[in-house]
Amino acid sequence: MIPLKEKLIMKTLYHKFNDQLPQLETEISYKRGNKHLFFVLYALKSTSEKLLSHDLIKNGNELIFTLEAGKEKHNVKLETKESYKSYYFVSINDNLNIDEFVQIEPKLINE
């Protein structure tokens, strides 16, 4: 199994060289039997404006992650019955540097 950090770098390179900038995806990591969910913004241009906001909402079995980066808006909606130990947001720029790495707490709705 490829370590998460190496997987993130390889995917960033893929997005950078295939002109898919930026791309928001999810990754799952396991540590000591716990599942962690990462929302990863791949290959954000190094000169882009800073991220304005991100939000995670949990509504029953649905997770909704929204992100505003500069003038662009990104959304990821996941149907999940699985539970995760923690949630993170990671932004990686096209120079393979991490711009932001934060743990996020979901806002609970209808639970």
Nutshell version of this structure?
The chain is mainly β. It has one helix at 4-17; strands at residues 23-31, 34-44, 51-59, 62-69, 72-79, 86-93, 98-104, 107-109.
Any descriptors?
111 residues, mainly beta, four-stranded mixed sheet, 1 helix, 8 strands
Mind summarizing the main beta sheet? 4 strands, mixed
Mean pLDDT: 86
Question: Structural class, please?
Answer: mainly beta
Number of helices: 1
Tally of DSSP β-strands: 8
Q: What is the overall silhouette?
A: globular
Low-confidence stretches: none
Helices and strands, in order, run as HEEEEEEEE
Give the spatial strand order of the biggest sheet. 1-2-6-7
| Euclidean distance between termini CA atoms | 35 Å
Fraction of residues in helix: 10-25%
Rounded to the nearest angstrom, the radius of gyration is 14 Å
Strand content: over 45%
